[in-house]
Amino acid sequence: MARDRNRLPGPQHPSSRPDAPLRALRHPRGLRRPRGHLRRLAAGALALGTLTGTLYSALPTTPVAAAAGKPTGHDISSHQGNVDWRDVRAKGGRFVYVKATESTWYRSPHFPRQYRGARKAGLLHGAYHFGVPNASSGRAQARHFLRNGGRWKADGWTLPPALDIEHNPYDREHACYGMSGTALVRWVRGFSNEVLRQTGRRPVIYTTARWWNGCTGGSRAFAVTHPLWLANWHSTPGPLPSGWAYPSFWQYAGAGALPGDQNKWNGTAAQLRRFARG
């Protein structure tokens, strides 16, 4: 997904697909700027993620080979501006994640209208935060997010808060933000714990297999308790970040019928509603 401002020094990255080729960088590997970046593999399995250590009874427990027939959604940021939500609904959109914040310096000026508009049109909606781990602590960024739209409520319409954690868009020489795997895992844990403390839900984690496995050292610390939102712009989900057996959401394209990035929920519409309720 997209950052909205370049507030940190360093060259910017051109837009590219999620599995753009790696360059040899100092720590530990570098990626060109995408909204995700994964290596192509044949036939990945889809099924739903877990939350708080157990599978919801609402969720399927066996892998599903294809995304056909699953609820379609999208994710947007300030780049999409004013959205025609009636058109989104008419084209099959059933859920959306809206960017609320980034680091501790940014709040999307379009978030309130986008978020309310989606709900009014009958879409399930959720908020996401673009994490910049070398700018401030995970806890501080979670607090900023929750103060500015990231909260969750058990109304059946609000999806759990989401953390977008991927390669550094502000410095191509430090795709992992100049941080060790241990430090990045600590940062994600700090963000997650604060979201849980304030909302009662663990955040959904948006990432790519390549970034996660390369930058966190293949951490398996979050797979049991955090739903995975996988970015891979190919015909199949492909490889997964370490620990996860399947994604709950799959971002499969950077453009399509709906504004912004295109996504599928890995389950039925009824299961998505139950997932939203918690």
What does this structure look like?
It is a single chain. With 278 residues, the protein is α/β, with parallel strands linked by helices. The chain contains 6 helices and 11 strands. It has helices spanning 85-90, 111-120, 138-147, 181-199, 209-215, 269-277, and strands spanning 22-23, 30-31, 72-76, 93-102, 106-107, 124-130, 162-164, 204-207, 228-231, 249-253, 261-265. An 8-stranded mixed beta barrel has the order 3-4-6-7-8-9-10-11, surrounded by 4 helices. A hairpin with a 7-residue loop joins strand 10 and strand 11 (261-265). Helix 3 (138-147) packs parallel to helix 4 (181-199). The longest helix is centred in the C-terminal third of the chain and has 19 residues, at 181-199. Residues 5-66 have low confidence and may be disordered.
